[in-house]
Amino acid sequence: MNYRNGVRLTILLKALVTVLIATPSFGNTIYSSSQNLKGTWLTETTGKAMLDPQTSGLKAWRGKLLSVSDGSAHKSQRLQFHVIDPSTAKVAAESFPMKLSKKVADSCFGPYMADTPDLEALVVDPDDDSVFYVATEDGRRGGSYSDSCKKRYSKTGSTEFPSLLVRLKLQSDNSLLMTDVRPMQFDNSFNIGNFPNDGIEGLTFGKNRTLYLGLEKDQKGRARIFSIQMDESFWSESGFFIVSDVNLRLPRYSSGNHPINGMDYYAIDNHPGFIIAAARNDDNLWVIDLSKKLPTKILPLNFLSPNNSADCKNWESMDNSSVEGVAVKGNTLMLINDPWRKHYKDNIVCKTNSENFEMMAPLLFSLPIDSNWFN
User: Fold this and answer.
1) Residue 97 CB partners (closer than 8 Å, separation 6+)
2) Which DSSP category does 219 fall into?
3) pLDDT at 11 over 60
4) Are 261 and 278 in contact (CB under 8 A)?
């Protein structure tokens, strides 16, 4: 073997090793074929693309979609639900702004919730669609968090400032009242680690008021899904609630970051159902069997942005999409991305789209739900 061929073989072997260590265990996963998804820019009533909402949660609601922004969004987009028409991706002029009840304002977490809480997930109550729940992370921006509060809520099993679950109730004036807030606690054996910006990123209800909470990553860099039973007495308490590990058959990677950043529930008759989760770093969907009988099915996606110029292709493959919102709407899956400031401008190919990418405007995607995902 001459030197040049030897170098080529070494490069090929290194590439093969890289692929293998980034591939999950096939005992837990089945790959599907890749699909192209054509996006629609979210537009506001001005006709312009939506300004930097940093969308971190999406759910179907009364024929529309509701989205929520995280704490790094433009200040005009924070602390409210945005109402989106799923057929046009147009954002309604009137949003649902949030306000604190006296109970929440007077709690240990009042200053944080009144300032810039990092809202990272959204779900609608399955028995009352005027009630919603959001989860928070990155409480380092918690403002005046007293020493007594720190002591009371120090044993989180994760971050110094606990992740919170917040209950909101839609009022007659279309505002959202934060009626209750509770901190979550992880058992130390779960090895969650102290990652303030990598906490709960997905919420969805399954059967019998089981709330599933999707964790972006634990101490080993693995995504996790936990659960709680939200019964009638849940909000009568104000202290920690303890999550349970569902021990689902999630993909296990030997290297790299493969978090989940959004999820929703899909019901199947005579079955516990499935969770469909977005793995934003990989542009994948995970279809996760709650009965734990089937391996997780991985659906690779290629996200396309539209162009309106004769000088460019009609559709451009996105270099970075970073999907974080997942919503089951009938037999359609709706997805929305959370523009990653560091890489979003890497998507600019056609100058017609430069302004939209520079504004950190998201796109809405839809995908027919295929019954083959569930067998």
Assistant:
1) 79, 80, 175, 176
2) T
3) no
4) yes
pLDDT classification of 192: cutoffs 50, 70, 90: very high
What are residue 168's DSSP bridge partners? 132, 178
Q: What 3-state class would DSSP assign to 11?
A: helix
Q: Is residue 300 within 8 Å of 288, Cβ to Cβ?
A: no
Q: Which amino acid, one-letter code, is at 335?
A: L
Q: How far is CA 288 from CA 249, 283, 297, 323, 335, in A?
A: 7, 16, 7, 18, 17
Q: What average pLDDT does the segment 262-278 reach? A: 97
- pLDDT, tens digit, 9 for 90 and up, residues 14-44: 333 334 335 555 567 788 889 999 999 999 9
CA atoms of 242 and 187, how far apart (whole Å): 8
Select from 177, 301, 192, 167 the least CA-distant residue to 245: 192
The beta-carbon contacts of 62-67 under 8 Å, at least 24 apart in sequence, are: 62/129, 64/92, 65/327, 65/329, 65/334, 65/336, 65/364, 66/96, 66/122, 66/124, 66/132, 67/122, 67/325, 67/336
